[in-house]
Amino acid sequence: MQPPERLLTGPGPSNPHPEVTKALAAPLVGHLDPFFLGVMDETMANLRTVFGTSNHHTIPMSATGSGGLETIMLNLLEPGDEAVVGIIGYFGQRLAAMAKKAGANVRIIEEELGQIIDPARLEAALNEKPAKLVAVVHAETSTGACQPLGDLARIAREHGALFVVDCVTSLAGMPVEVDATGIDAAGSCSQKCIGAPPGLGPVTFGPRAIEAAKNRTHPTPTWYFDLDLLFQYWGDAGGTKDRVFHHTAPVSSIYGFHKALQLILEEGLEARYQRHRDAHAHLVAGLEKMGLSLFTPASHRLPMLNVVNIPEGVDDACVRKGMLERGIEIAPGFGHLKGKAWRVGLMGYNARVERVDVLLAGLEDVLREQRL
Amino acid sequence: MQPPERLLTGPGPSNPHPEVTKALAAPLVGHLDPFFLGVMDETMANLRTVFGTSNHHTIPMSATGSGGLETIMLNLLEPGDEAVVGIIGYFGQRLAAMAKKAGANVRIIEEELGQIIDPARLEAALNEKPAKLVAVVHAETSTGACQPLGDLARIAREHGALFVVDCVTSLAGMPVEVDATGIDAAGSCSQKCIGAPPGLGPVTFGPRAIEAAKNRTHPTPTWYFDLDLLFQYWGDAGGTKDRVFHHTAPVSSIYGFHKALQLILEEGLEARYQRHRDAHAHLVAGLEKMGLSLFTPASHRLPMLNVVNIPEGVDDACVRKGMLERGIEIAPGFGHLKGKAWRVGLMGYNARVERVDVLLAGLEDVLREQRL
What pLDDT, in 10s, does the model give residues B83-108? Predict the structure, then answer.
């Protein structure tokens, strides 16, 4: 297995810290080994800090980020429930699709690509008809837009709805603050700002969400993602009951994830957020110097995912191919933005000025070739 | 991350081959990188060989073995469907629980622990009332029993039912032969006889299963495990359509899995099965020399998972603790066998006479101490 060396500056996976990669290859132990039970408890504790929550029910799901989000939907929604989903790009559509799969009647609040949802629209939607659950994407990876959460959380809760957030791209790269914001359940991934390989779906469930899951009329339509079964293995809130086998945890992946969380806490969340902002500012300045512009309005741009307009006359696929030949991955635009924009990610270990310089130099080089 | 070194001779995870561990730490690339798309195609092809199938729909699910089995149930069953599940231990109960979660009316055929199901019982059950799906466990990890599949497959198909097999413990350690046996869908795991870390759920779906999934009345209650969405990413049967993003594949885990499959094919399936039988025979001889006996009748014992009776007066937990202090993991009995038996796994890389000797020496040592 000799993959090419890549600078992964697409929408994730991002390059993990070398120590994370090393942890993947640490000696395997059993999923009920006393050593591993300790790793699980530390992982939960550190993940709580990164989410900004005291929620006991905070774990990396043994599935990718999408699996974590589906865990939220399948446990909190049941057939006939009302849900409101905010859509500002592809990942909002995906939340809506998952809520429908869970059997909910889904109403959507949609905004144009690049824009964000005005809290007044949520207020109006909930005044018209209450909902059990409101879900939005914090950092929309398809458009580079950052959806502010505070007002939406307040409005959802004032109307008695659970507030659910997809923070797949934002977590550990900018503040999410589950408890302070008033988020009832949130799901992220391992391979973006957390800086581990893809494969795990960190989730957190607050007391209102756990209550809703307990008060279901129908059983969940899932064994693998069932919260009750999951926490028989990960441990109940009091730590009082014996752990019961559910599935065999992905031990090596959790080693890597555990190390990634440790590195985040060693760096400090604030310093890490600042590093993401600095890398972003450096990228934007460099792009502007090259005459390139960003798709997303500056008022609500994400730091870790930059959507860059493709200049007139430049061949999208050729540029991405040229970059890949130089060992640099950037991603195409998504959906309607395909052929019109590139997506450039600066996440986790890659949110560094030196790496931005490599990326900028590569892009300048490839664009120069294109123009010849 | 400095886990203790363990000889993992429980029910899995087993120790991976060092080259598999090395592959986990290979440079990460994107999930749509041309290099990785090649790895995906090779993984599918090699996995087909290990399953003994020409089924296009053969992939490692981005979830553990349980997630793979749930994928089968949630796609092949829908509310109101009839299912018959054979139960010869805990993992049969789990199949029944999953089928119920999918909304099926589940009838069970249960046998005493250690025993296997007589095909005549399936014939009688299906004569009484037809079913859409029949599911059994090939290698029951909780009892060490091997359920012969040929007659069950024939009877299920004669009655128009899909035949589904949990081969979590058997695959790559003994013949499964999906096509020759007449299995319509099967699910396994990465961490037992395949010899990779836990985290992936290899599955295969034959044409009758795919047809059944296509002819559903209700949509599947899952986005993450939905077959149609999954194969938009893994590729359609003709390889004609562009791959569409679904979830971000667990790249590093698939590196390890890909390497594990490669090592299996290099060794040869027959040689590998023989190695598992040899290690088993060596273990049984060694145990008998120590005056220990196996729980499972010799007529249908698994080679890779041995259920060993705990001798009168010996403290179960103390022995397992003593073994762990010597760096050797063996597992407790499951359910009714807890305190009465140990489960000793010889899977993948660990199915070697030299490793069995280490295990036997450790057990002899610990038992001697116990008797003092």
Answer: 999 999 999 999 999 999 999 999 99
Of B248, B265, B282, the last residue of a domain is B265
Say which residues have a Cβ less than 8 Å from residue B157's Cβ, sequence separation at least 6.
B163, B182
Same domain assignment for residues A154 and A279: no
Same domain, A257 and A222: yes
- DSSP, collapsed to helix, strand or coil, labels residue A327 as coil
Binary contact (B28, A15; C-beta < 8 A): yes
Domain boundary among B206, B230, B265: B265
CB contact under 8 A, A248 and B27: no
User: Closest partner residue to A1 among B23, B33, B101, by Cβ?
Assistant: B23
Mutate to test the interface with B, among A247, A305, A323, A325 (most CBs of B within 10 A): A247
- Which residues of chain B neighbour A24 with C-beta distances below 8 Å? 24-25, 252
Please give the tally of structural domains in chain A.
2
CA distance B164 to B152: 10
User: Which of B28, B40, B73 would best serve as a mutation to test chain A binding (most A beta carbons within 10 A)?
Assistant: B28
- With beta carbons less than 8 A apart as the criterion, state whether A61 and A205 touch: no
Q: What is the pLDDT of residues A208-263, one digit of tens each?
A: 999 999 999 999 999 999 999 999 999 988 877 788 899 999 999 999 999 999 99
Looking up residue B314, the CATH number of its domain turns out to be 3.90.1150.10
Tokens of A293: 């512009």
Beta-carbon neighbour count of residue B372 at 10 Å? 4
Q: What distances in angstroms separate CA A178 from CA A41, A67, A309, one per listed residue?
A: 20, 19, 33
Same domain, A334 and A207: no
Asked if B13's CB is within 8 angstroms of A221's CB, the reply is no
Identify the residue among B224, B225, B263 best suited for mutation to test binding to A, counting A beta carbons within 10 A and taking the highest: B224
B72 and B148 part of one domain: yes
Q: How far apart are CA A288 and CA A358, in angstroms?
A: 16
Q: Would you tell me which residues 53-112 of chain B have a C-beta closer than 8 angstroms to some C-beta of chain A?
A: 62-67, 70, 73-74, 94, 97-98, 101-103
Q: Looking at the structure, do residues A250 and A336 belong to the same domain, yes or no?
A: no
Residues in A touching B187 (Cβ below 8 Å): none
Please tell me whether residues A128 and A56 are part of one structural domain. Answer: yes
pTM of full prediction above 0.95: yes
Interchain contact B232–A (C-beta under 8 A): no
Closest CB to A224: pick one of B12, B66, B259.
B66
Report if residue B192 sits inside a domain: yes
Give the residue among A340, A273, A240, A254 at the shortest CA–CA distance from A62. Answer: A254
Prediction ipTM score: 0.97
Query: Does the CA dihedral A313-A316-A319-A322 come out positive or negative?
Result: negative
Q: Do A255 and B1 touch (CB under 8 A)?
A: yes
- B248 contact A CB<8A: yes
The domain in which residue B360 lies consists of 8-12+269-371
B115 shares its domain with B153: yes
